Amino acid sequence: MEPVKESLHRTAAVISSTIGGVFEDLEKIAGAVSAAAASASGVPRRSAFHFLKKEFANLINQHSGVITGAGIAYAPGSLPEARYWLEWWRVQHSDSSREARFVTHDLNPDSLNYYDYASREWFTIPSASGKPVAVGPYVDFGGINVNIITLCVPAPTPQGTHVLGGDLTLAKLEGAFLHALQLHNPSVVLLGPNGRVIASNDARIASGTLLRDEDLHRVQDSVDVSPDNPTRLPWRLISLGK
Q1: Distance (Å, rounded) from C-alpha 10 to C-alpha 130?
Q2: What CATH architecture is 14-171?
């Protein structure tokens, strides 16, 4: 039987590679966004970024095993048509066509249902740091009201830093985690930096919940999922003793 520590390292490598592929493709699209903004004559309008719909549809389709949605949040005040603008596409589980559909958000600051994306961590962290990062898990009240993780990539432009993202539901990620782990005992948890459980092989430890202190005291092994780039993917795998 494979030693637990080796299983953790193998699983970490699979997760890092899978998520890393999404980051790499997001960064390619972000580069195209920056280039389009830089080559525009004056302040670019939304039409300068119409190519993104196809790019994000391809991204979602290519990484359908882990992500369910993707899009771009523009820097406030960067577009002449509207101060705030968010374009996001998502595949519905019930849609057999797997077509990415536009997600509508209320971007009117005077509305009771206003979605203030510019204040959300998935926007503020990459905007401030200028670096890609996985944010969450958190409840996406502005979209599908489930626990998600957003892989975020900044796209700097002369008008400000836009943020591109890909959404992972915990259910999708848990499936990839269990397939890679292939281990029933001991309990293994994929843990986020905020102490929230991203996935586990223990039905008692639910995804999206805070790991209890009593479980933290049982940690036997701990492996960073992305030791070469912990800022981008600040997760770790832990095994628990009895």
Answers
A1: 30
A2: 2-Layer Sandwich (3.30)
